[in-house]
Amino acid sequence: MLFVELIVKGLVYGCMYAMMAVGLTLVYGLLRILHIAHAGVFALGAYMTVTVANATGSLALGFLVATAVSAVAGTAIYRLAYQPILHHAAFVPMVVSIGLFIVMQEGFRLIFGAYGIAFDTNPWYVANVSLAGISLTYVEIAMVIMSVVLLVGFGLFAGLTRAGIGWRATVTDPQMATSFGVDPVRVRYVNFLFGSALAGIAGGLVGLLNNYVEPTMGGAVSYKALAIIVLGGLGSVRGTLIASLVLGVVEAFGAIYLADIFDRDAIGFLFLIVVLMVRPQGLLGRG
């Protein structure tokens, strides 16, 4: 039973990693930019969720506001920070992104305080529910359901709609897509809009899971998300999803059996190093 429970817990965290890392993969696949500031959008979503939920008593409203604000923030980052410097070498947008993430962290510290915010006391959604002998909270169940619905929805959008096919074509061959009438600028906006909305939702869920939101909460998650997109194969959405779930399960088992040697974060990066030594291009990356 412990084996099954660890797998389930690992998949729960893997779903959270997936919602965070997919946005990074979308940006890298389209622009070849390591979008570090994505972690700031993740934290912004958490702050919007807790602030609105505590002020209004409505958790649903908190997530709606967090999704909208995160989506707008992500597109604003592209328009104001990335678009003017896309013609520079790849390291220039990355440096800008790192600086923007640091600025966002300090902004959260100044606006919301350095000690973090908790959700109102004794919320019903942290209660435990037993499913087939496995104890899960409502937040963990919601994280799995929301990630599956959103990511499957994105898959259907990318595979069945004209806009989604245009996005895929732009990622594969931007010049050919443009010659067929696809607007690359519009595709980029949709990319940042959807990826940032996912990050905001993931931030709110993690804030709920920990019942705590603080300025630097995006730091560790951003490092793991970068590790995941490398592990999955840079630019591969399918590889990112698989790597997210695998990493969540590996961390769950490692936190039990290797806790005396490594902490949870170290286990994830150790796994990344081992995999890349065997397969440098990642799980689904091209050689």
UniProtKB/TrEMBL annotation:
Subcellular location: Cell membrane
Protein keywords: Amino-acid transport, Cell membrane, Membrane, Transmembrane, Transmembrane helix, Transport
Keyword Transport: yes
Protein name per its UniProtKB record: Branched-chain amino acid ABC transporter permease
Spans through the membrane: 6-26, 85-104, 148-169, 189-213, 225-250, 256-278
Pfam families recorded: BPD_transp_2
Membrane topology annotation: Multi-pass membrane protein
GO molecular function, one term: transmembrane transporter activity
GO biological process annotation, one example: amino acid transport
Domain of life (superkingdom): Bacteria
Similarity remark: Belongs to the binding-protein-dependent transport system permease family. LivHM subfamily.
GO cellular component terms, semicolon-separated: plasma membrane
InterPro entries (UniProt xref): ABC_transp_permease, BCAA_transport_permease
Main location: membrane
